[in-house]
Design a protein that fits this description.
The complex is a heterodimer of chains A (84) and B (308). Chain A has 84 residues and is mostly helical. Helix content of chain A is 61%, strand content 0%.
Chain lengths: 84, 308
């Protein structure tokens, strides 16, 4: 995947995060994890995953999601799903 | 670098297993540590005792961690489904049996994982606290537990010394075996005081009535909860007390019945000719009961019933 394509996925992911956490100022990067966002708990995680699935038209498995460490890994997973 | 684990140093098995869990599932770390931080030292020691039992049963920490993560992953998957469709995936016992009960290897893993959640998930911990707090008020001659599952509540009832006879019945062979093992390992048998049956509660004879009946986390697994409540009525004395625990809007791989609201659950119980005494409702962490009802989020419910 090209850098541009990955950047696009990251931008779209960040938009989903801002929408889900209702914070237009929220800054998301590759290293961002649940430890960095107070409201990012298991409940929000479900909401986040559903929103990301809808945004990208993909299906994510619990074991795939659970193994992620941060947003960067999430973006990589989404990228791999989009490649098919 | 090892992630910080919210567990006392006096619980080395717990620390080892939790470390494996949070390494394999980093996204689960926040939830689990928050839950563990709320537990008392005694509750941590009880969890450690259970883990010691699992190790003595031949399981290593990696296998234990994997069993727990099976529950985490499967529950998460079911939560996604529920969020998208508004209903549980499973609509019949046959489906649940195919997924879970008829698969001995999965069932063992499932029981171990569920057992650990009863120690480590704060909603389950609070439910257990309520059970222990109300147990003395339930004291009677004979105790009957329906679906003891991992056997932890049944063991507690035996160890309380409050009942002359303790019986349990479980339709699952795996659960029956687990309950037998944990009781025989942790509690010296005293002859006829403890009876563990493998069979269908609905087919139990209606003599030998129980003064106390415990039905924890059963209704959500059945197609016809009214049948179980009516049977509970039939196998208990007129003055009996029933400890009933179930959940609302709480998807899991083998959950079938969802009352959807507390009002619906209350109506069901009252239709079965019980009246409700004490009630404990545990909303999803960080949410109020009103928010849970509005947003269809999970609520765990326990209630003490008496006959009308």
């Amino acid at each position: 995947m090209t850098d541009n394509a990955r950047e696009t996925i990251m931008r779209r992911t960040a938009r989903v995060f801002r929408d889900i956490f209702d914070d237009d100022e929220l800054e998301i990067g590759n290293a961002t994890s649940a430890a960095d966002i107070d409201d990012w708990d298991s409940l929000m995680h479900v909401t986040l995953v559903v929103a990301l699935e809808k945004e990208f038209g993909i299906r994510l498995k619990a074991s795939e999601i659970g193994a992620l460490d941060n947003v960067g890994a999430m973006v990589d997973l989404i990228s791999s799903k989009l490649k098919g | 670098m090892m992630a910080k684990v919210q567990m006392p140093e006096s619980c080395p098995i717990g620390r080892s297993v939790v470390q494996l869990i949070v390494t394999r599932r980093p996204m689960h770390r926040k939830f689990l540590n928050a839950s563990l931080a709320e537990m008392s030292e005694e509750e941590h020691r009880d969890a450690e005792r259970y883990l010691r039992f699992l190790r003595e049963d031949g399981l290593d920490d990696s296998r234990i961690a994997d069993a727990y993560l099976t529950i985490v992953d499967d529950t998460f998957q079911e939560e996604l489904y529920f969020r998208e469709t508004g209903r549980y995936r499973c609509s019949s016992y046959a489906e649940a049996a195919k997924q879970v009960y008829d698969n001995p290897e999965y069932m063992t893993c499932y029981m171990i994982g569920l057992g650990l959640t009863s120690f480590w998930w704060i909603n389950h911990v609070r439910m257990k606290r309520f059970f222990f707090e109300t147990l003395p008020s339930l004291a009677g001659d004979s105790y009957l537990e329906v679906g003891p599952g991992h056997g932890i509540y049944f063991l507690a009832a035996i160890e309380s010394g409050l009942f002359r006879i303790c019986r349990a019945i479980d339709i699952s062979r795996t659960s029956f075996d687990m309950t037998k093992r944990i009781v025989s390992r942790e509690h010296p048998q005293k002859g006829a005081e403890v009876e563990i049956l493998h069979g269908d509660f609905l087919a139990m004879p209606e003599d030998n009535l129980a003064a106390v009946l415990v039905m924890g986390e059963v209704l959500e697994h059945v197609e016809e909860p009214m049948q179980f409540l009516r049977k509970a009525f039939a196998v208990t004395t007129p003055e009996a007390k029933v400890f009933l625990a179930t959940c609302i809007n709480s998807p899991a791989i083998d959950h079938i019945y969802n009352p959807e609201t507390f009002s619906a659950l209350r109506a069901l119980v009252e239709e079965a000719r019980f009246k409700i005494g004490s009630v404990l409702q545990i909303p999803r962490a960080g949410k109020s009961l009103a928010e849970c009802e509005q947003e269809r989020l999970a609520v765990n419910v326990a209630m003490i019933l008496e006959k009308q």
